[in-house]
Amino acid sequence: MSHHIVEVKNLKFTYPDGTCALKDISFRITHGESVAVVGENGAGKSTLLLHLNGYLMSGNGIIRIGDYPLTKETLKEVRRTVGMVFQDPDDQLFMPTVYDDVAFGPLEHHGDAHEIMRFYSFQG
Predict the structure, then answer these.
(1) 3-state secondary structure of 73
(2) CA atoms within 13 A of residue 65's CA, in its CB half-sphere
(3) Which domains does the chain have, with CATH numbers?
(4) Which stretches of the chain are assigned E, i.e. beta strand?
(5) Distance between CA 85 and CA 105 in Å, rounded?
(6) CA atoms within 13 A on the CB side of 41
(7) How far, in Å, CA of 30 to CA of 24, rounded?
(8) 79 — phi, psi (to 5°)?
């Protein structure tokens, strides 16, 4: 995998109502860096993050996640490497236990439940 983990070039996005949310955003996050996205309400933080895993796709600008340019064709691979935790837990948690919620994605990709428990250090 590339040492440039996340790269965004000239990303622009306007919502259907005409609200410009992202205007020419460019940055690179490399291996080992910690980054915080901060700003006022309505500044475009959530819109940006929704682009990084393909929930929103503007068609204006370039996004690379590891070795993959984010396109419709690479969306499945990108989503295997990008995780997102929503601000409101009611939007995030949909299984009866935290283990079930965390294990859902890996199990859907033919994971082994015992391997998932080991990886996440869950005690059963």
Answers:
(1) coil
(2) 17
(3) 1-84 (3.40.50.300), 86-124 (no CATH)
(4) 4-14, 20-30, 62-65, 68-69
(5) 13
(6) 0
(7) 20
(8) -65, -20
What is the pTM (predicted TM-score) of this model?
0.70
Residue type, 121: S
pLDDT in tens, 76-97: 888 877 777 666 666 666 677 7
Token pair belonging to 68: 């993959």
Question: CB-side exposure of 22: number of CA atoms within 13 Å?
Answer: 26
- How many residues are given for the chain? 124
Torsion of CA 54, 40, 8, 49, to 10 degrees: -20
**Cβ atoms of 103 and 113 closer than 8 Å:** yes
